[in-house]
Amino acid sequence: MSGPVLAPEVSEALAAGRPVVALESTIISHGLPWPDNLDLARAVEEEVRAGGAVPATIAVIDGTLRAGLDAEALERLARAEGIAKLSRADLAVCIARGGTGATTVAATMIAAARAGIAVFATGGIGGVHRGAERSFDVSADLQELAQTPVTVVASGAKAILDLPKTLEMLETLGVPVIAYGQSGFPAFWARESGLAAPLRMDAPAEIARAHLTRAGLGLPGGQLVANPIPAEAEIPLDELEGLIAQAQREAEAAGATGKAVTPALLDRLRALTQGRTLAANAALVRANARLGAAVAQEIARQRAEGAPPRAGPL
Ligand code: PSU
Ligand code: MN
């Protein structure tokens, strides 16, 4: 089995058991506009470093799956010329054809797991779309969380999704959903969705121990850590509700399907809020990078201590 080609810094850190945090690239190419996306991609890597871990941004560049990108690759993704959006279904095909593409949460998890990276930080995961009972639009990110052993730090699922259905699906798939520092499930731009989170943890060490224990049990799959957006950056849900419904109607009327749905909704909401969702998005991704670094540090520390996952007989 082949994994991603590692940047020297990433490979050295992994070999030495030092903390590494994977970062996705679809948020750069398809999630945010140029040039804010490049600024944010750099800032997020800096947050990971400031948190004491090594960042490993993941993408396919000219047919090579990479973990850890140089400045040129990052800028190419941000300019998004000829950049495909790669989920689980697209990864091998893009590599086989020598193409270039940005990885979604699902594809980034696959690459991280192959590289031996335990933690991945991003903005929001994909989930069950509103109207999924008609469209069947359910992100491959959910299935990936069920089968690939990576702890994903996000700010919940985007409020453009059907959050109750997304939580139900995660429960069905056996994915631990852990709200960080509060009892409610966050809704991306808003700290609270009004829904209770299935689990709550208040310390990175606790999240790290749960990650290692799950691996020790031989259970496939990862965990979702839902970190609420910093209070000063949040946009309360009631302010967004009408605009989300409008963006949704417009996307449906324009015939957006498949991969195009999420980028179209995010783009429209940015315009409808005069850029407020963009500023909020930047703040929450940075906060998630910080928390991801703290969790990665704890996993590295607990592994070094040889902390045996305390699993009794099954
Ligand atoms: N969160 C954002 N912006 C994004 C995404 C998430 O703030 O662009 C991306 C992630 O890469 C996620 C993907 O994996 O959207 C989900 O797309 P889909 O619904 O097509 O599976
Ligand atoms: Mn979809």
Description:
The protein has 314 residues and is an alpha/beta fold. The protein has a single domain, classed as Indigoidine synthase domain (Indigoidine synthase fold). The chain is 47% helix and 17% strand. It has 13 helices and 13 strands. The chain has helices spanning 8-15, 26-31, 36-50, 71-79, 91-96, 105-115, 132-135, 140-147, 163-172, 204-216, 237-253, 261-272, 276-304, and strands at 5-6, 20-23, 54-61, 64-67, 84-86, 101-103, 119-121, 151-154, 177-180, 184-187, 190-196, 199-201, 223-226. Strands 1, 2, 3, 4, 5, 6, 7, 8, 9, 12 and 13 form an 11-stranded mixed β-sheet that branches. A hairpin with a 2-residue loop joins β10 and β11. α3 (36-50) packs across α4, α10 crosses α13 (276-304) and α11 packs across α12. It starts with a strand and ends in a 10-residue tail after the last helix. The model has no long low-confidence stretch (mean pLDDT 95). The structure holds pseudouridine-5'-monophosphate and manganese (II) ion. Manganese (II) ion binds next to loops. It comes from Rhodosalinus halophilus. Pfam families: Indigoidine_A (PF04227). Belongs to the pseudouridine-5'-phosphate glycosidase family.
Which characteristics define this entry?
eleven-stranded mixed beta sheet, Indigoidine synthase fold, 314 residues, binds manganese (II) ion, binds pseudouridine-5'-monophosphate, 47% helix, globular, alpha/beta
